[in-house]
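Sequence only, no structure available. Ideas?
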Amino acid sequence: MKRISLSLLAVLIVFIGILFVNYFRFAPQNDEIMVSTMDIAAIEGYKERIAQSIQYQTISYEDTSLIDYNEFCRFHEFLKSNFPIVFEKLSFELVNAYSILLKWEGSDSSLKPGILMAHQDVVPVAPETEDLWLHPAFDGVIVNDTLYGRGTVDNRINLMAQMEALNYLLQQDFRPQRDIYFVFGHDEEIGGKQGALEVAKHLKAKGIEAEFVLDEGGFVSTKLVPGMQNPVAMIGTSEKGHVDVELSVQLDGGHASMPEKDNAIGVLSKAIADLSNTPFPASLSPSVNDFLDHIAPYAGFVNRLAMSNRWLFKPMIFKTYSKTAPADATIRTTMVPTIIKGGVKNNVVPDIAIANINLRILPGTGIADVEAHIERAINNPLVNVRVKDGGQEASGVSPIDTESFRQIVRCIQTNFEDVIPAPFLMVATTDSRHFDIISNNIYKFSPMIDPAAFHGVNEFLDLKTYPKAIGFYVDFLKN
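Reply:
I predicted one. Tokens follow.
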């Protein structure tokens, strides 16, 4: 018994030793913080310009016949009139009529070029919500340093901050070493296939291979990362895939006074409930593992111990992340009904009911896996499952041991106080996914703090933090 006890004690000591070796292996990094080179006082009128940019209704509609392309032309003229030195010093072309491509020629043509991206288009404002806005969505009203309007955070802040940074550096006669391209697509909100994809193909046809691509993406958050006291700057290194799946049920309907036991709406409703009760399993993708590696050193004792010993505490991590929708979306493929159609009259049982299920696919899971999971979860021959066209597999994972990623980190730390930069998985899609044909180093970061009301009512931007966005791009372009 004594020998058994000693053996168990030895095993326990080794076990605890492993936990704490891993715990201390994740030590905080003491990187030297640079001093920002930008003087915001030298940039006059930057608040007014971004407010004016909101007034151009560059709206993307799923029904493209509704798009007013004249608004894009007017927005182009706005940029030219407000940033004349940019269009004087840089080459400018329109790709597929409305997507902007600017080229800033560097001093060393042997270096691979860099690409900065943003998009011009915004989502529509639902007519039934117009009265809920504090100020009309396209007036660009500023109240107490808060700018209200559709597109303020998605994605005018990136586009206008890049233009302000570029304008500032040109006025200082700065010239980068490598060529820099600026790509402002015109249809990101409906997939980017007529805009960003065409630009990427255009550059590829010229034989261009980019050192890096930097697009919209993660941001600095003080709220979204469980167990963290410091703000975390989330730099997207991969994107989830996406697909829409249609569920349809066709059964004989009839008069509502004599309903059959089964009806199309009832069967479809049960199918949706079965999907809700059968979520995809949680998993740690490469970007999420990288994320945990970066934030673990700054977490509290319990969280740091768990994140540094994922081999043991993975279930605890999954349980914690499953408590909030944003965190849960990083560890599993999500599915949610977004459109339901069935019935046209109060007293008529419909013959057909249809639902659209929108899925965001975790890396490591494919569209074929999604279809198989849905079929198994519903397990009802009365429900027809159809994968709709237009889906996209999850992206590849960009490396974090590149100089471009390190510069993104440095410039975030320069412009945002006490922040922890970390790679992460983008749960939404961006135009930059189209650029994997010309670069392996695609990063997604929007220099703002806890933006609110993406695509929603009263979308707004805190203009007190807007100089940080301009400063980030100034420092990134200089470095």
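The first strand starts at residue 91 and ends at 95.
Hope that gets you unstuck.
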